[in-house]
Amino acid sequence: TGRRVAVAGAGAALAAAAVLSGASPAFAKPGAVMSFAPSPYSYGNVEAGESASQTFTLTNTGSAASGALTLTLLGPKAFSITANSCDAVSVKPGQHCTVTVQFAPTHRGLTRALLAASSPKSGVGTLATVLMSGTGLGHLYWVDVNNGDVEMSNVDGSNRQIIETGQVTPQ
Question: How far is CA 171 from CA 142, 144, 148, 162, in A?
């Protein structure tokens, strides 16, 4: 028979993991305890064609080294790792490494991704995750009927600019 566990908070998650594995929290095997900061993270609104970056710190607050880390970015191509001092590194207790993820949307709308750190040495698979989100904004385009200029602005009306002049000759 399967077990159903309701979890609230990190401490409860550790206790639930111990219960599911058959160990009690007091006798849980010590090891690497990893976490990303900030976590979760929102890039906010980013114009399509522009980008925003965030550096995440992966810290080991446990009692053992993490073992060689593998970082996996799950999500659309709008998210990419641009710098990484964590991959294939074993993070000792009290130490950290960093990874920078860029959000560069190509279309409008909310987009999400997950960054995960894992190590075969840990015996638990994924050691830490961070959920990222961002909203791609589009542009508005129009033609000024008085002079034929093609204009553009952000969806909120900011950054208005003429991108072509005099496309229509007034009659």
Answer: 19, 14, 11, 21
Q: Which amino acid is at 138?
A: G
What is the pLDDT, as a whole number, of residue 26? 39
Token digits for 99? 């990874």
User: In 10 A of CB 52, how many CB atoms?
Assistant: 15
3-state SS class at 133? strand
Each residue of 16-38: pLDDT tens digit? 333 333 333 333 446 899 999 99
**Cα-flanking dihedrals φ and ψ of residue 24, to 5°?**
-95, 155
List, for the chain, all residue ranges whose pLDDT scores fall below the cut of 50.
Answer: 1-29
Beta bridge partners of 137: 47
The DSSP H or E segment spanning 34 is strand 34-37
Instruction: List C-alpha distances in Å: 95 to 38, 62, 98.
Output: 16, 10, 11
